[in-house]
Design goal:
Layout: H1 7-34, H2 41-62, H3 66-79, H4 84-97, H5 100-113, H6 118-130, H7 134-145, H8 153-166, H9 170-183, H10 188-201, H11 204-216, H12 222-235, H13 238-251, H14 256-263
Helix pairs in contact: 1-2, 1-4, 2-3, 3-4, 4-5, 4-6, 5-6, 6-7, 6-8, 7-8, 8-9, 9-10, 10-11, 11-12, 12-13, 12-14
Length: 268
């Protein structure tokens, strides 16, 4: 079975994690700090300034301005050297840059500062999976999944499913995807991966159900449209194939998927 997705999908998932970090890290630090009677006003102000720097770093990273993003994260760390999430975010930036050793160094330092930080374990587990250390990565992801109150649980299930596919364990992958779907049935990545799982197995009606949920959200990436076209083709729905093909041609005329459609390469 093919490993699902592409580098574009990996980047989207990493950005998903970053969005969660962005929304959670500042509030966790600041809310927790204000409850501490020994926490000085000066240190609280430093944490606020560091969080602002980190948010700027994430914003620049999303624009692929890596150098500026890293400088902002560096400034955040210089203000608050114990800001765990800053090291995790810097690791993700290095990961996207292909600087894997620097990424791992930052992940490990973050875990040294906070050994049970689920956000860091989640992201580090995904890093390991992406870098062909799937068994080790699943260990971290499974640890995260043991905490059913983790706010980003569905994304962790999705990551664990993709990690399992890289290990050629389709049965475990399906279980992870379905568990994630129960928690977040609107998650487009989970629906897409379930659609692919059933498509590869030849269960085309089930595949159509899940890819249809993605299409209903208007999450019409070239990848999703191409998958939907292949599913409808297997089901013999020529009208649906023609409609989806027209959308692929209109929206993504320069995509790899459209070139495959033009060649009739439905099995690549």
């Amino acid at each position: 079975m093919k490993v699902f997705g592409s580098y574009r999908w990996l980047r989207r998932l990493v950005l998903f994690f970053l969005v969660f970090v962005l929304s959670a890290c500042a509030s966790k630090h600041l809310e927790g700090s204000t409850d501490d009677s020994n926490f000085s006003a000066e240190k609280l102000e430093a944490q606020k300034r560091a969080s602002i720097r980190m948010q700027l770093g994430i914003s620049y990273y999303q624009q692929r301005q890596y150098k500026v993003a890293l400088e902002e994260i560096k400034q955040a760390i210089s203000i608050a050297p114990d800001l765990v999430d800053a090291y995790s975010v810097r690791a993700l930036i290095f990961m996207d840059m292909g600087e894997n050793q620097l990424a791992e160094d930052n992940f490990l330092y973050a875990l040294k500062l906070a050994p049970d930080n689920l956000d860091v374990e989640n992201n580090y587990g995904w890093f390991l999976c992406v870098n062909k250390r799937e068994k080790q990565g699943l260990g971290y992801l499974d640890k995260v999944l043991q905490n059913q109150h983790y706010p980003s649980l569905s994304k962790a299930y999705n990551a664990a499913g993709v990690c399992s596919l890289k290990m050629k364990d389709a049965a475990s992958a399906e279980k992870y995807f379905l568990q994630g779907f129960k928690i977040d049935p609107a998650n487009p990545d989970l629906n897409k991966n379930l659609a692919r799982t059933f498509f590869e197995r030849g269960e085309y009606a089930k595949a159509k159900f899940y890819v249809g949920r993605v299409l209903q959200q208007d999450t019409l990436t070239a990848e999703v449209l191409w998958l939907a076209i292949k599913i409808e083709r297997k089901l013999g729905n020529d009208a649906a194939v023609n409609s989806l093909s027209a959308q692929l041609r209109k929206r993504y005329p320069d995509s790899i998927e459209f070139s495959l459609l033009q060649r009739g390469s439905f099995d690549e």
